[in-house]
Design brief:
The protein has 448 residues and is mostly helical. The chain has one domain. Helices cover 66% and strands 1% of the residues. It has helices at 31-59, 64-87, 100-108, 114-133, 136-141, 146-159, 161-168, 179-198, 201-205, 207-221, 250-278, 283-304, 315-322, 330-341, 344-350, 355-377, 386-403, 407-411, 418-421, 424-439, and strands at residues 96-98, 309-311. A two-stranded antiparallel ribbon has the order 1-2.
Length: 448
């Protein structure tokens, strides 16, 4: 495991700098550190989960009570899948949440009705689970060479850029310029990075969490938005598990099979990049188990009328940011997610964080994702080859173009292809795979 001054601090020459890991993969940190790290995983998961849940709930025309129940089911699937991944699946420090590519699939086939969407979700999840159980997933993992892995990490930042833009350029309060939220968010990013640069140990790991809490308080104190009101509420029972039943339409199933191919690519890329980053062993077995668990989570999501889970590609960035590779810190996060599934008021607490602060946290993590991608592509400070640079460049630029595709163009893509061709991450990753393994495949040696 690399050790030393892994902070992005400039205290060493760039060629001597290595990734610092304070908490190894299979070891529990002390109780206080575990709670702080678990809280940071939760902070990353819940705001995005709430946004995605709201998008699907509104698209399905659910009322307030229906959207809350939908998000409860979403949290329940996420919590269970997260725990199983940590204890039996890939056993890596990987954050589990609803798959964005499946959400695109839901929105593209929503006219078929929730039952058809749920049935297709379950079928796709079942086939994905079989690919992992029978060892097919690990064979696909051979496709994820360092240039492809580095491309996937950079494409995460690219595909989330429109989201960060909308969060940072938040609708202003009365009398405030819209640039105020952007300037506040960028200032908060710089302060969080400065804290990670200067602080040590637990305090450095907690920099993002402190930035979220302090940034929210300062944002409201400056009058950029009125102070919100939190209604705690009480614990409630579990949501209904079969809200609309299952239906099986061939066209919708085909669309979701395409989505699940992208999900498998996302899962494998995250497992490979996270494992390579922290030096994990037995990666083939981890890949197979991780894909199998994600597939079983998709089956559960289909039965429950929820969204299939995936291990988030932001995970390596969190490892770099917190300097913790301990998978066990995700268990308290999973337990807290389960509590939130039974406590709607808890969901409302996370909703108090202003959007520019969420955008600042996301931007900080994406900066770390860029560092993680360079760490994968250029181990021990080696120079990139012409081939790897070309692969990275094409994947990155194509991902940007697709991520900022005008809505009217995306609307004209065939619904079965929209989950693929309208997703910057998927398009960039597919191009990286084609260039690495077909067009620029090395025969006699790297081209410099």
């Amino acid at each position: 495991m690399p050790s030393g001054s892994g902070e992005i601090s400039g205290q060493r020459a760039p060629e001597e700098e290595s990734l610092e890991i304070l908490h190894p993969l299979d070891r529990w940190p002390d109780a206080g550190t575990s709670m702080v790290l678990a809280a940071q995983w939760l902070v990353i998961l819940v705001p995005g989960l709430l946004v995605l849940g709201q998008v699907v709930g509104l698209a399905w025309g659910l009322d307030d009570a229906g959207r809350i129940e939908f998000m409860q089911r979403l949290l329940l699937v996420t919590a269970i899948t997260q725990a199983v991944q940590v204890l039996w699946g890939h056993r890596l420090p990987g954050l589990v949440g609803p798959s964005a590519v499946l959400i695109v699939g839901v929105l593209a086939t929503i006219a078929s009705g929730p039952g058809s969407v749920a049935g297709a979700m379950a079928v796709g999840g079942g086939l994905t689970a079989l690919a992992g159980i029978f060892g097919l997933a690990a064979r696909l993992g051979r496709l994820y060479t360092p240039p492809v892995l580095a491309s996937s990490l950079l494409l995460v930042a690219v595909s989330l850029t429109p989201t960060m833009r909308d969060l940072l350029y938040h609708a202003p309060a009365e009398g405030q310029a819209i640039s105020g939220s952007f300037l506040f968010g960028i200032g908060l990013v710089l302060l969080m990075l400065l804290a990670q640069f200067r602080l040590k140990g637990l305090w450095s790991s907690a920099a993002v969490l402190m930035g979220l809490v302090a940034g929210s308080l300062v944002y409201y104190a400056l009058g950029l938005e009125p102070w919100p009101v939190w209604r705690a509420g009480a614990l409630s029972g579990p949501p209904s598990l079969l809200p609309g039943g299952l239906a099986f339409e061939p066209g919708v199933i085909v669309a979701f099979l395409l989505c699940y191919l992208a999900l498998i690519s996302n899962e494998l890329a995250t497992i490979e990049s996270t494992g390579r980053l922290i030096g994990a062993d037995k990666m083939a077995a981890r890949a197979n188990r991780g894909v199998a668990v994600s597939g079983l989570g998709g089956v559960a999501a289909g039965i429950m009328g929820s969204l299939g889970p995936v291990t988030y590609s932001v995970s390596p960035a969190v490892v770099v940011s917190t300097k913790s590779a301990s998978r066990y810190t995700l268990l308290p996060a999973a337990a807290a997610t389960l509590v939130l599934a039974l406590w709607p008021g808890g969901l409302a607490l996370f909703g108090l964080v202003p959007e520019p602060v969420v955008g600042a946290v996301l931007l900080t993590l994406m900066a770390q994702s860029v560092y993680a991608s360079l760490h994968v592509l250029l181990p021990q400070g080696s120079a990139p080859s012409w081939t790897s640079g070309s692969i990275l460049g094409v994947a990155l630029i194509a991902g940007i173009v697709v991520s900022f595709m005008p809505p009217e163009i995306k609307a004209n893509i065939h619904p079965y292809l929209r989950p693929i061709l309208g997703n910057g991450f998927v398009v960039g990753l597919v191009l990286a795979l084609i260039m690495e393994h077909v067009l620029l495949r090395k025969k006699g040696g790297p081209k410099n």
